[in-house]
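We treat protein structure as text, and this decision shapes the records that our systems exchange. Because each token names a local backbone shape, the row as a whole describes the fold. For reference, a complete record is included directly beneath this paragraph.
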Amino acid sequence: MRWLLRTIKRKSKGNVSHVDETYEGGVLSIGRSAGQGLFLSDLRVALEHARIRPLKANRFRIESLIASGIRVDGSLEQAAGIGPGSVIEIGQNHLTLVKPPAGYDGAIEISEIVRKDDKAGAQYTNRAFTLKQTKLSKRGLSWILFAVLITTALAIPIAGHFIPGMSGKLRAMPVPDDGQWSAGTLQAAHHFFGEDCSTCHTKAFQMVKNEACEACHSVTPDHADADKFGLPELTETRCAFCHKDHNGLDGLVRTDQKLCQDCHTNLDERSNQKTTLRNAADFDTNHPEFSVELAGWDAEGNYTPRVEPLNSDLLVEDSNLKFPHDVHLDPSGLSAPSGKRVLNCDSCHVAEPGGAKMEPVDFETMCQDCHQLAFDQQAPGRQVVHGKVSEVLYMLDEFYANKALTGGYEDVAAPAVVRQRRRPGARLNRSESQEALAWARGKARRVGQSLFEGQACSVCHTVNQVTNGGDISWSVEPVRVAGHWYKKAVFTHQKHLTMNCVECHAAESSSSSDDVLMPDIANCRSCHGGEHSRNKLASTCISCHVYHIPASQP
């Protein structure tokens, strides 16, 4: 059997439309479940509410599948005969049987019922569906919203800005203030004045001026000497071009590579060949070899360091120190007075707090266990100081003068007055004292010569013998070890703790202290790449360099 199911829809302006569906089957089932022939979405309809069976031409029988029955032509029935013109009410649905058109055995028109006593239905029909029914026009509503927005977002905050003392009162009350204009979270260092926008924004609706930044940062050094290089970027660039606040707690400093590339890609041309710096644009593809600063002094004793690239033939550290790293890093260990000792890099090199540089090597805590400065077999626990030559000689003079005047010093080369044991308090006559002190003076110089030129000092230092008025003495060349190798770069060991020292410093194969054991650019490129590197740690210029050079003028 072929059914035509026509759903009548009434639009808000009174127009009527319909949607036709076809159902084929012996029995037409009616309900709210998905498998029904006639699906009604009304919640008042049961999942399986009723069914219609054919009897004969244009005659049918409707049967209720629920105990409450259905309303047929105004009467509540459990089952009834129906035909064209019969009206069936199920929930809010009005089903009218009509004469089927050609090609169909039955036809039903479905529409919605709205009863006068149905409060929900009446409420639905009385509801406003157009803006015009609310007695408001689009233009009028737009002006109202515009006025509210202007007042809350602009007028009130502006009043707080221009009226003295008003901004603080607005912030203390639950009303709009200039805080709603904030573009984002301030940098952590600016939080202490963050409530007062006028600290930086001195003029309303204008960009932050350099003068506002310099009010607090007056001693911040410049990037380079603007008078020497004459680059407009050094004098005309706004502070806020690089430092944009309201980007979070750590977002004040620009880190993109382009910040430096603009000038340093062809710095030699832009500075008219006035700079000794070499061009650089990308750490992975366009960066010169590292240069280190080697310690040095001129003839007058002034500190005059020299800068050499790591690939230079003149790369020699004149430290006046004799130290073979390979010997001290021997895996089998060293013969020390206390026994075998195996040294590592951190046995002598300790990073300073913060990890940027290494603390100076300390002889007393790092070297003296092996390199003891004992000088007399009769006093094995006594050592000279690791200090100035005059201090060492004074200590030797004092030690042997005391031995000579006290007596009892066992030395076959010493005079009898020195070897002889005396009672405590016994005094020497003048000639005996002169003889004892003369021996002490000579003994101190012989021991000093052994220390400075033989068993101790000359092992590590460059020692020269000098004569001063017939008296023998010595001079030790000062140790000149670089404290900061990369003066124009920033580096911290703290961030490289996962690396072994020998991965960057080739100390295990170094037999001379003249070797510069600093890593070259190839070593760093094994991990670090440029800003756009995919298989390495992306590193921009600001990762290793600072913009405000400390040596520059504010």
Q: What stands out?
A: DSSP finds 16 helices and 20 strands in the chain. The CA atoms of residues 186 and 194 lie 7 Å apart. The domain at 2-125 is CATH 2.60.200.20 (Tumour Suppressor Smad4). The two ends are 97 Å apart (CA to CA).
